[in-house]
Amino acid sequence: MKLKGAKRESSDCDEGSKGKMTLLLALVALISAFGSSFQYGYNVSVINSPAPYMRDFYNRTYFNRTGVPMDSGFQTLLWSLTVSMYPLGGLFGSLMVWPMVNNCGRKGTLLINNLFSITAAVLMGTSEIAKTFEVIILSRVIMGIYAGLASNVVPMFLGEISPKNLRGAMGIVPQLFITIGILVAQIFGLSSILGNVKGWPVLLGLTGIPSLIQLLILPFFPESPRYLLLQKGNEEQARQALQRLRGWDDVDDEIEEMRQEDQSEKEEGHFTVLSLCTFRGLRWQLISIIVMMMGQQLSGVNAVFYYADRIFQSAGVDANNVQYVTVSIGAINVIMTLLAVFIVESLGRRVLLLAGFGLCCVSCAVLTLALNLQTTVSWMSYLSIVCVVVYIIGHAIGASPIPFLLITEMFLQSSRPAAFMVGGSVHWICNFTVGLVFLYMEAGLGAYSFLIFCAICLATIVYIFIIVPETKNKTFMEINRIMAKRNKVEIQGDKEEFKDFHTVPGGQTEKKEFASVEL
Known about the structure:
- The chain crosses the membrane at residues 21-42, 77-98, 110-130, 136-158, 170-194, 200-221, 286-308, 324-344, 351-373, 379-406, 418-441, 447-468.
- This protein has helices at 14-17, 23-45, 51-66, 72-95, 97-104, 106-125, 127-130, 134-161, 167-188, 200-205, 208-217, 225-231, 235-246, 252-265, 273-278, 283-298, 301-314, 322-347, 349-373, 380-399, 402-410, 416-445, 449-467, 476-486, and strands spanning 491-492, 497-503, 509-514.
- By secondary structure, it is mainly alpha-helical.
- The chain folds into 2 domains: 22-221, Growth Hormone, Chain: A, CATH 1.20.1250.20; 272-490, Up-down Bundle (Growth Hormone, Chain: A).
- The protein has a 3-stranded antiparallel β-sheet with strand order 1-2-3.
């Protein structure tokens, strides 16, 4: 006889696990990413273009209240807060991921999250009429919380509803919409559209529209079947959700694969961040996402965008036309991320990560040389432009989209929310740190700042090459077995047992067997 939940040969369920892109699956991805990820990108760059007009509004409001002009130091402080409160809010949002997705579900969390965005949009859009700059700073915190939740929950949701052969492409869709959000903010921020003295409140307030659309449409789509079955224990609802997403009735193989996952982690319960950090069986997964998230944010992407305007001006681009060049860089970012959606399933995650960080590493090294020689060698300024473009391409195909995708793939259902909470927190802390430190680095080191980013990219490449496995076209359980060997957790292939030695309260060692045993 076979115990319930016994493991089948993976080849038997390969066909069932593979799925086509149904209209419903595509719509869920589009509405989730447009209503959430898009706004993360939009709010990253929305305040760049109208900055002079917003600072003038701060000064004018202060003068009307006090009768004296604002001190330049105080104005700099207020603007620094306006910029930095966004990543700080992102950190707060990441810390809310674990309790919210476990209690409200993935879809439920996205719906609740829209309230943050709509509230912030109304406050920012009416700030000039209300003659208060404080609500802009408050709204940036609120939008940060929204982005912190969205940047983690959307990849988790899309990763869980996708068949394994589409999981990579679906996992990059959130990053694609982040880049589209950046591009749309850059286009709307042109001085001829909304980046002017009258248009900036509208520019800030537009962020509420995608949330409103998501709030109206997303309730009609299914919740994550894995959440319904593994966390709510409702197989009937999970089956119905899967049938709708796959477009056919026979979803037994995927339900079976979820049961195996449930069987293998039943004794652990849901991981908290503390238990995740101390659990030997997930050690390398946790280290990997921390390294990749640090590499993603500390590889200098903010610095390249910061330098881009200056680099193009030194190549002879007119100061008034630099804004159009910035838009063109945003467009390259979108096109290359879109390319990554189509090639991730054929080339795999590892290749894109290594190629992406490799391009960033080389372009940072060459950019250091080009920036230092551009005053003496005339064509070096054009080489700088090439470096910026190559860097953007590298980040768009690998460094930006793949780390969030791998958090979904390297963790099972019980540990995934805590893993996203850790990965998301590292992402936003590093984002905040770079924003805080880079201006000082740039003042002290100048162009040599990029050598530090080059070294970080190189270290990340070495780690990925040695540690991170290929996860393309594998089930969550298959990936778990690959990482179990790395964690030196004993596996017996014949019975496909998953064993671990786990310390129980009191210090004694308890052997757990997560087995599908045949008798």
